[in-house]
Amino acid sequence: MKLRRDPFHAIADPTRRAILVLLVAQTMTAGAIAKNFNTSRPTISNHLQILTECDLLKKEQHGRKIYYQIKPEGLKEIASFIEPFRKLWDDRFNKLETIMKNYQSEK
Prior knowledge:
The chain has a single domain (7-106), classed as Winged helix-like DNA-binding domain superfamily/Winged helix DNA-binding domain (Arc Repressor Mutant, subunit A). It is built from five helices and three strands, in the order ααβααββα. It has helices at 7-11, 14-25, 30-34, 41-53, 72-106; strands spanning 28-29, 57-62, 65-70.
């Protein structure tokens, strides 16, 4: 039985976050991804395996090549967790902006 890893564990690593950023724009092979990093291909393959196990990536085989792409559904858990914090900070920044505008108009 294969255990699904925690997606928060996956995004805790800066290399894995960078891989996700790369794959937002296009699907890529492991070799193409590895060319963007100063690390070995097996290390990148390990990162890809973790991201795949966490449901953040999916892979499709075309001939001999395996292409990796973002799995948007997998990012929902992370987005759902972050959303209340984003709203909180948006509200705080909006209040600060209002205070600053009022302060400048009083001058």
